[in-house]
Amino acid sequence: MAKTKHLIVFGTRPEAIKMAPLVKEFLKNNLHFETKVCVTAQHREMLDQVLEFFEITPDFDLDLMKPNQNLYNLTAEIIVQLKEVLEEFKPDYVYVHGDTSTTMATSIAAFYSGAKVCHVEAGLRTHNKWSPFPEEINRQVTGRIADIHFAPTETSKANLLLENINKESVVITGNTVIDALMESVEKVTEKPSKTIQDLEKTLGKKDIILVTGHRRENHGDGFEKICKALKTIAIQKPELLIVYPVHLNPKVKEPVNRILGEISNIMLIDPLAYQDFIWMMNRSKLIITDSGGVQEEAPSLGKPVLVMRDTTERPEAVDAGTVILVGTNTELIVSETLDLLNNTERFKHMSTLHNPYGDGKACERIVNHIQSLES
Ligand code: UD1
Ligand code: UDP
Q1: Which of 11, 125, 218, 241 is at 20 to 30 A from 293, Cα to Cα?
Q2: What tens digit of pLDDT does each residue of 25-37 get?
Q3: Cα–Cα nearest to 275, from 15, 60, 52, 35
């Protein structure tokens, strides 16, 4: 029987981390599948860090990132440039991940080409089209187009069924972020990088609060308030060190450097390579973030997380008690952080290990499902 053709497309750091184990799983099954990887390079440096760590060389690289890019051009460019790739490779199946512009635009282009669209990390919802913006609509549009929905949890499957998605097309797999994490934690322990060795020396024995942030709906006023909160925490807890790998988006870098640049116990650094970031999460006492992926990784590492968002499409960790939502309210970020640091019982409760997002076998389930359709 002729091999079917599979195109895996991603563009940003989190998609790359979560699709890397899927690329490997498809390549392992090369007797059945012809697999190619296309990166839109909606991100450049932050994507390349991940490609290097997972040793993935894309077959197609659209190299689209522009400094301070806007949603209109990015979306249009992805659709236009994918046409050539789709016409050249003629995939039977196209795989997209999550909720970025790459995800939505690729699913539209793949639909135009007639390929089956497979949505990995399907069914996450806040039901608020402005939060996260534009991700909630990106994932809803992708959900409408997709032929196969790989939902990470029961909750995400239930969201899809509420939208009248045919239940036969939904498969619960767990989240591939856990596949990536399990594989990478081993590598980090075996061979710490030079960055980790340097960080170990700089951090010494200090307690660390790790911070990340980038969401579009927090740009402007939201980031001003977040930075003010971090500054207050740093001043009130001089014995602590706040480590903040700053996202490369200029709309993030500007307020962060302006407000936090000169504070002695705040360390602003470039985005860490994935393996170094995992080490840093493990080394931290608590994490303050607006990231989706970090919310999923932290429960597996037993790290309490304050999420600087008003809504989350990842209720599982909130229900498990590892994650609390604090929005971008300066007072609330400060009071919740200080309370958590001072209240041992509460801290212990939030540090309990949980695994609501998967068991590390999501990619195997995805590939097995596709194989079952083909046999
Ligand atoms: C994007 C996704 C968001 C995801 C996030 C992960 C959309 C609309 N947004 O947001 O869903 O959570 O990635 O980080 O799809 N930049 C660099 N180098 C890089 C990456 C970014 O310089 O490697 C700068 C560029 O100036 C770029 C800007 O950041 O124009 C914004 O990148 P973009 O992908 O549009 O938005 P993110 O905020 O990164
Ligand atoms: N991450 C990383 N280096 C960093 C910060 C985060 O490799 O300096 C990883 C993190 O482990 C997680 C992913 O990037 O897997 C999250 O990406 P981001 O927060 O940019 O996007 P989101 O998950 O919110 O879409």
Answers
A1: 241
A2: 999 998 899 999 9
A3: 52
Q: Does residue 292 have its Cβ closer than 6 Å to ligand 2?
A: yes
* Residue 153 shares a structural domain with residue 198: no
Catalytic residues: 99, 121, 135, 214, 216, 247
pLDDT in tens, 298-353: 999 999 999 999 999 999 999 989 999 999 999 999 999 999 999 999 999 999 88
Kindly report the protein residue whose alpha carbon is nearest to atom 20 of ligand 1. Answer: 43
Residue 160 is inside which H or E element, if any? helix 154-162
- The closest residue, in CA terms, to atom 9 on ligand 1 is 100
CATH of the domain at 84: 3.40.50.2000
Q: Does residue 14 form part of some domain?
A: yes
Q: Is there an atom of ligand 2 within 6 Å of 293 CB?
A: yes
Regarding the beta carbon of 248 and ligand 1, being less than 6 Å apart is answered: yes
Strand order in the sheet with 266-269: 266-269, 241-245, 208-212, 286-289, 305-307, 323-325
Residues 257 and 339 grouped into a single domain: yes
Answer yes or no: is the C-beta of 98 below 6 A from any ligand 1 atom.
no
Beta strands, E only, the chain: 4-10, 33-39, 60-61, 93-97, 116-120, 148-151, 170-172, 208-212, 241-245, 266-269, 286-289, 305-307, 323-325
Task: Give the closest residue (by CA) to ligand 2 atom 13.
Answer: 14
Q: Are 149 and 171 in contact (CB under 8 A)?
A: yes
Q: In what helix (H) or strand (E) does residue 341 lie, and over which residues does it extend?
A: helix 330-342
Tokens representing residue 198 in the block: 């340097």
For ligand 1, pick from 65, 102, 141, 314 the residue to mutate: most ligand atoms within 8 Å of CB. Answer: 65
Query: Residue 285 and residue 264: Cα distance in Å, rounded?
Result: 19
Q: Could you give the residue ranges of the DSSP H alpha helices within 67-153?
A: 71-89, 101-113, 135-145
